Amino acid sequence: MPADLLALDRDSLLRVLALCSVQDVLALACCNKELSQLLKDDDLWQMLAEQKWGHHVRSLAQVAPGGWAAWTRHRLAASSQPVSPLNLVQEQYQACPFQHIAACLLCTRTTGGTAVRHAIRRFLDHWPTPSAVIDASDDSMLEVLQPLGLQAVRLQAVWGLAHDFLAADWQSPSDFKHCGPFVADSWRIFCRGGGSLAGVGDKNLQRYLRWRLHGKVEEAGKRERAAGSRKRRASPPAEAGTLRSGRRRNGTAGGSGGGGAQASPPGQRRMTRAAGPSGTGAATSAPKAARGRRS
């Protein structure tokens, strides 16, 4: 196979390599010494980038001499991931990180139904590269994006992605203006081969990772319902009458000034106030029977 590739002219070879992931390209280089030497040519990586993402690579990319290999490899898919029975929208575009990120942007805040999938497919078929998006007219793209709703916002987001994908020195899609954690997590999982559930907030991405780890599709919401059930079992119900009995034991009687006096148990002596010689009140205590006799 590597020998057959070397028999191709350079343009044909670039077309083949543009369809491969970084992992596949490096694997081919390991199989053939001549191809390995060829891939050390920085100019080849620049031509590969232009073949894959269009003519704006040359005008927008800020690459130091000798840096095209790293620049291009970062923007290629690191590996290919299995497609799950979940049939997530972005799974279909994992071979091309630009299209994958664009699909994530376009499917955000949609139902993900047939009309949405058709609109995203139509958009990426018409404008599959950053250069194609940059060169396209706004009206033509807005027409295709119309079924998704918020088409003006989506157009701004995908145009910004196309520009920054080539021009910015980005490390993760979260560096792009309109890309949040969902887009960054999806890119990490599908385009970089990430397998950790840590920090992944989207439930569909969580389900995909569990499917990839365990080989079976988890019913939507099953883990959440199970967690809620365990929480209810762990919390014993409150004893009946606890609140009311607590109020009876700690009840207070409010006064006109906002203060309160604690209720006295039956049989306990009560405090009365008697006038002292100086006109001040003095606290004395007497049984009920004694007070009754002093009439």
UniProtKB/TrEMBL annotation:
PROSITE patterns: FBOX. It comes from the Eukaryota. Coiled coil: none annotated. SUPFAM superfamilies: DNA-glycosylase, F-box domain. Residues 252-261 have a biased composition (Gly residues). Keywords: Nucleus. Residues 219-295 are annotated as: Disordered. Pfam families: F-box. Its main location: nucleus. It is found in: Nucleus. This is F-box domain-containing protein. It comes from Chlorella variabilis.
